[in-house]
Amino acid sequence: MNRTGGNLYHNSTAQWLAYIALFGLLAIIPVVGAEPFQLRTFAGYAVFAMLAVSVSMVWGFGGILSLGQGIPYGLAAYCMGATMQMQFQTPDEPIPSFMLTNELEELPGVWKPFWHTHIGLILALGVPTLIMTVFGILMFQARLAGAFVAIMTLAMLNAFYSMAQDLQPFTAGFNGISPPNAFKAFGVEVDPYSPMMYWLALGVLAVVTFASKYMLQSKFGTIVQASRDDAERVRFLGYSVAYYQVVVFVFGGLIASLAGIVWVMIQQYVSPTALETPFSIYMVVWAAVGGRHSLFGAIVAAIVLNYLQTELADISETWQKAWLLILGGIFVAVVLLLPRGLAGAFEYLIGWIPFGGRSAKPAARPEAG
Amino acid sequence: MGIILELKDLTKAYDTYTVVDHLNLQVNEGELRCLIGPNGAGKTTTMDLITGRQKTTGGQVIFDGRNITGLKEHMIVRRGIGRKFQVPAVFKDLTVRENLEVAFNRNPDPFANMLMMFRRTDKARFDEIVDLIGLGERLGERAGYLSHGETQWLEIGMVLTQNPRLLLMDEPTAGMTEQETHKTSQIFNRLRGSHTLVVVEHDMTFVREIADVISVLHMGKLLAQGTMAEVENDPKVREVYLGAEGISDAT
User: CB A219 to CB B77 under 8 A?
Assistant: First the structure.
């Protein structure tokens, strides 16, 4: 069916308004009243939403099925964990306690930069970016695609997971690092249970979402989506597809890195679970359920699914155990019945509402809902 | 008018099987050249070798006096060679307008294109191409909804948007109805002179309508070359095309 001309869903102004409404709604949660521990949980949902946006960019729009979004997320989380741990250490007691139990007698070289909070933050973004860049260049220059990319990223994720487990003196192994104090910067301590933390998480989510949305509406976004549809054709229009893929892959990694940083601020804890395979697959499931061609859908699905999980876990342990089955069921149902996810169903429904005239911008991306 | 494309002893072999065998071919600037030959003659492979889609086993591709053998596809495109594929390749999820915008490649750098919000295309040129391919009414349509013929024209339009000096067209009328084929030949006749075209085609009616010079390939070698009449009466060509009937009946 042809609805390109008159579907409100494709109206660029309506799209921006929908995003502003969504973030406005989320922003008033602390004002209308929420318990501190609930706020902390909600801040966590914002992190999951960032990860869903990251997958949506890389997979939904870039066509790169990465099962390794946990790599930038986990690496950034470890860098942030180290930074916060070192905020607690003093020149008199420079060595974190888990290192002492691992019989380290001085602070390892790789930990020294984290004495400085600003360097720690730069590393938390820089290390994952560098690794994703090198990894991306290796994969996309070789024109890997589809299942091969999924396998490569998954293998890489597991390599980092093993490192986090096995390099116990540096990472505290499976116990993970738990910095005793909340993150401090510019003289401000960010209490994980405070509205400030929640708004900070939401603010980062808003920034990455609008940056992604902007990118998708630029010519860069059109070329990236064109490469997803037919890489060869794009190559034969004179673009280096590999270059574009590396850029979108690294951009998605940058979003996941920010998510990792915020997560550790909220949880004051980082462990190899951040690099576990299932977690990276959940991110893909969130994006798929929401509609991988829609940032909005990915955000909503990540929040709703995680909210459901938390609520069900509160009811009883049986429900907590049943959650994986439920999530799997939802995923299968969406793949079979709604291949474009909830956003696709919404696009279809809203297409029935009469909407006068053509889209404000005829070239609006049909899929960037 | 000089030679724009020259193939020197171009060779492509898979193990022991040689698909393109020391092929020598010259195309003049502004010419409309048709490349014909039975299945397996090496026509599409030759296009692949020119555009860098496949690696050559031997020989050279000289474009505009410079050796472009072994360059990557997108670099060859940037030198000025556009290509239309045998199976129409457009971006089905993008609109017709977006397809043409992607094709309008002023700056191939991803970071520069992040700043390109208003998609300033060359308006006059854009309109001219839309008019040429006759898709003015369908600009807002998703390319996936186009008919087969329209898809082929869109791809031709995309290649033209690049303003290439040499256009390679692989079976542009494949699967088209008679009217569509006729419209395509009109498009090609309008391009004649301002562009250099190399067209691989099976449809002899179409070849008759458009060709200046025809090159006949057989077993990866140049079998004959000349005008339609010369090629038709060439005994070697007649033999290749299923005996005595000649190419006139081979459609």
Answer: no
The segments of chain A whose pLDDT lies below 70 read 1-6, 355-369
Judge whether B106 lies within some domain.
no
CB contact residues (below 8 A), chain B span 25-64, against chain A? 51, 53
Taking residues B195-210, what's their average pLDDT? 88
- Chain A residues 188-217 with CB within 8 Å of chain B: 215, 217
Question: Are A359 and A10 contacting, i.e. CB atoms less than 8 angstroms apart?
Answer: yes
Residue in B85, B108, B155 nearest the CB of A238 = B108
- Please state, in angstroms and rounded to a whole number, the distance separating the CA atoms of residues A206 and B62: 52
Q: How many CB atoms lie within 10 A of CB B190?
A: 12
Domain limits of chain A?
18-350
Predicted local confidence at residue B189, as pLDDT: 87
Sheet strand arrangement including B221-226: B81-84, B166-170, B196-200, B32-36, B213-218, B221-226
What gap in Å lies between CA B71 and CA A362, rounded to an integer? 37
- Confirm whether B175 is domain-assigned: yes
Distance from CA of B176 to the nearest CA of A (A): 21
Residue B63 lies in a domain: yes
Q: Select the residue from A1, A236, A244 to test the B interface by mutation, using most B Cβ atoms within 10 A.
A: A236
- pLDDT at position B151 is 93
- In-domain check, residue B8: yes
CA distance A27 to chain B (A): 29
Least confident of A339-343, B119-123, B126-130, B152-156: B119-123
For residue B111, is pLDDT > 90? Answer: no
- Tell whether B144 is within 8 A of chain A (Cβ): no
Q: Which residues constitute the domain of residue B228?
A: 3-89+159-249
Q: Counting every residue, how long is chain B? A: 251
pLDDT digits (tens, 9 = 90+) for A261-270: 999 999 999 9
Q: How far is B94 from chain A (nearest CA, A)?
A: 7
pLDDT of residue B208: 87
Tokens 């609006």 sit at which residue?
A364
Give me B6's structure tokens: 């020259």
d(CA B177, CA A80): 64
Chain A nearest-CA distance from B190, in A, is: 22
CB contact under 8 A, B89 and A215: no
Q: Which residues of A touch B154 (CB under 8 A)?
A: none
Of all residues in chain B, the one with the smallest CA distance to A243 is B110
Give the strand pairing for B66-67 and B58-63.
antiparallel
Question: For residue B242, what pLDDT is reported?
Answer: 54
DSSP H or E run through A205: helix A195-217
Name which of A219, A233, A236 is nearest B113 (Cβ-Cβ): A219
Q: Which of B166, B222, B178 is closest to B46 using CA atoms?
A: B222
Chain mean pLDDT for chain B: 87
**CATH code, domain with B70:** 3.40.50.300
